[in-house]
Design brief:
Layout (H helix, E strand, L loop, with lengths): L1 H36 L9 H7 L22 H7 L2 H7 L19 E5 L5 E4 L3 E2 L7 E2 L8 E6 L6 E6 L5 E6 L9 E4 L4 E5 L3
Antiparallel strand pairs: 1-2, 1-9, 3-4, 4-8, 5-6, 6-7, 7-8
Length: about 200
């Protein structure tokens, strides 16, 4: 009787083990099939941690998309829309404002003078002096690459015209009768300039 019960128990264990192995194989096959048809990416259990490491708030901005404007490529229509009639006449058509009429001719606040066309920084107030010529005068620019100098043969004279290197806007002329520090006098139209007041 005891031997019969042992045999029955052994058979049951064997069948159970077989079923367990079978179910295990079925589970493994099902898992592999699901893995093959699931989209790539982290498992649901990993989603929160992955998002916390890949937060867009921690990503640096892509500065390559912030390309500067090419002012030299602007059309006349663009400039006319951007500038006043007098600014356009002087900056884009090499005009000259009447002497002693410019807003910066007798203006002595501390700050930086910028191009009215594109905002490029051109002159510092520390280099401005009263030349008595009727236009704002500076003995030095901020940097040599900010201003372009070209020969001007207009009006029967030979002069050196100065233009903004960034937008090619006409600023005025440079002469060699300035203070001894540089010996230069950048004679600039007020209408070609803007002004940024120095921070106190």
């Amino acid at each position: 009787m005891k031997t019969h019960r042992c045999k029955t128990l052994l058979v049951a264990l064997t069948v159970g083990a077989g079923l367990g192995t079978g179910l295990g194989m079925v589970g493994l096959v099902a898992y592999r099939l699901m893995a093959q048809h699931s989209p790539p990416g982290p498992s649901p259990m990993m989603t929160q941690d992955a998002h916390s490491l890949d937060s867009t708030h921690d990503m640096p901005s892509d500065s390559t998309h912030d390309t500067p404007m090419d002012y030299k490529a602007l059309s006349d229509e663009n400039w006319k829309a951007k500038l006043s009639a007098e600014e356009y006449r002087v900056l884009r058509c090499q005009g000259t404002e009447r002497p002693y009429t410019g807003v910066y001719e007798q203006f002595w606040e501390a700050g930086t003078y910028v191009c009215k066309g594109c905002g490029a920084e051109l002159f510092r107030s520390q280099t401005k002096f009263d030349a008595g010529c009727g236009w704002p005068s500076f003995y030095e620019g901020i940097a040599s690459d900010r201003i372009r100098e070209i020969k001007d043969y207009s009006h029967g004279m030979i002069r050196i015209e100065v233009r903004c290197a960034r937008c090619d806007g006409h600023l005025g002329h440079v002469f060699d009768d300035g203070p001894q520090h540089t010996g230069l006098r950048y004679c600039i139209n007020s209408v070609s300039l803007g002004f940024k007041k120095a921070e106190e």
